[in-house]
Design a protein that fits this description.
By secondary structure, this protein is α/β, with parallel strands linked by helices. The protein folds into two domains: 153 residues, 2-Layer Sandwich (Nucleotidyltransferase, domain 5), CATH 3.30.420; 176 residues, Nucleotidyltransferase, domain 5 (2-Layer Sandwich). 38% of the residues lie in helices and 17% in strands. It has 14 helices and twelve strands. A six-stranded mixed sheet has the order 3-2-1-4-6-5, sandwiched between helices. A six-stranded mixed sheet has the order 9-8-7-10-12-11, sandwiched between helices. A hairpin with a 3-residue loop joins strand 7 and strand 8. The longest helix has 25 residues. The radius of gyration is 20 Å and the shape is globular. The chain starts with 5 loop residues before the first strand and ends in an 11-residue tail after the last helix. The relative contact order is 0.13. The C terminus is likely disordered.
């Protein structure tokens, strides 16, 4: 695989991203297709056409898969058996897994003669201890696979790989979905998303953690499961509080102009991020590094300022003149604050190459 071109396909909640790398890890090509699309195959078709126009032949394809369930904890080569396993996991992540499977099917049809590798977003969090992954439900429910899995693992892994000396770190991935992960020794020790990517922090259109009685209250008044799922996945979070706005730059401008709904939405959101980071210091025993990544984390100075303003008591202080991405800490600040450009595709490339390397002693895939 040293000279081979690996294509990484990353289906996100708001776009389908793709990137091609060579054996040295150099990026040869990248593209982004807006989502959702009416035809699940159309995004992969566009990627294939653009790859061909760039003169790049695909040797392997790496796929981001949001949920590995209770069994899949590491990258795996995709075959019909794994696809069937993932289809059985759709109820674990109904917002994401159907689209992931559509992309896999389209790519396997487009490139049937090359290996395809699943890279699970949950895999990084396989290091969570029992007190972190156990949810407070009876054993019979836990036995059904109900536990904290954690997500954005590929993004957090990129941070671990590229930021030296993280120490005790809180990684805030703020994008279409939002999470905070506590990292110690390069490993996940706590994370805000739980059984599915809907839990944890409020996101652009997801509710995040919500009193369960709210949903039961609505169910008792005739709401269907589909309506409740749409509520928590597509019409809550920042969008729900601001009248449907999903662009944080627009929200910020309107809040600055005095829109009370936008101001409140941003306050609820940034307070949730800050209190989660602060809470994780109890797990980490302190905080050495705070990382912002993801589209909002990278591009919204207003969100970063609002979050860090609530963390001054921990030693977080920003240099407003510091360039982004990079270290944006005020000189001498006890806590280093860093902005990192998310690059899940590079992690996927390395993972696929490692799995497909010849003469490697692989552990059989668990079933």
């Amino acid at each position: 695989m040293r000279g081979a071109v690996v294509l990484s396909i990353n289906p996100g909640s708001r776009s389908l991203k793709a990137a091609a790398h060579d054996g040295s890890g150099d990026r040869l090509w990248a593209h982004q297709v807006p989502r959702p699309t009416t035809d699940p195959d159309s995004g992969v078709t566009e990627i294939a056409q653009r790859m061909a126009s760039a003169g790049l032949a695909v040797s392997a394809v790496a796929h981001r898969v949001v949920h590995g369930g209770p069994v899949h904890h590491a990258p795996e080569q995709i075959d019909d058996e794994l696809v069937a396993d993932l289809q059985n996991l759709v109820d674990f992540a109904p917002l994401h897994l159907p689209g992931d499977l559509d992309s896999i099917e389209a790519a396997r049809s487009r490139w049937p003669d090359v290996p395809h590798v699943a890279c699970f977003d949950t895999a990084f969090h396989a290091t969570l201890g029992p007190a972190a992954h156990r949810l407070p439900v009876p054993d019979a429910v836990t036995a059904m696979g109900v536990r904290r899995y954690g997500f954005h693992g590929l993004s957090v892994q990129h941070v671990v790989d590229t930021v030296p000396g993280l120490g005790r770190a809180a990684v805030a991935h703020l994008g279409g979905g939002c999470s905070v992960t506590a990292v110690a020794g390069g490993r996940s020790v706590q994370t805000s998303m739980s059984f599915s990517p809907t839990g944890g922090l409020p996101s652009v259109s997801r509710s995040g953690d919500l009193d369960p009685e709210v949903l039961l209250f609505l169910f008792d008044r005739g709401w269907t499961t589909a309506e409740l799922r749409s509520l928590v996945d597509r019409s809550s979070g920042l969008a729900g509080m601001s009248g449907g706005l999903t662009d944080v730059a627009d929200l910020t401008d309107r809040a600055a102009a005095g829109d009370p709904d936008c101001r409140l939405a941003l306050e609820v959101f940034t307070t949730a991020v800050a209190t989660t980071v602060a809470g994780y210091t109890a797990v980490l025993g302190g905080l050495d590094t705070l990382v912002f990544t993801g589209g909002i984390g990278e591009h919204s100075a207003a969100v970063r300022d609002a979050v860090t303003d609530r963390l001054r008591h921990l030693g977080v202080a920003l240099d407003p003149t510091a360039p982004v991405p990079g270290d944006i800490s005020r000189p001498g600040a006890p806590v280093r604050t860093v902005v990192v450009t998310a690059d899940e595709e590079r992690v996927m490339d390395r993972s696929a190459r490692k799995l497909l390397a010849p003469a490697r002693e692989d552990t059989p895939r668990p079933r």
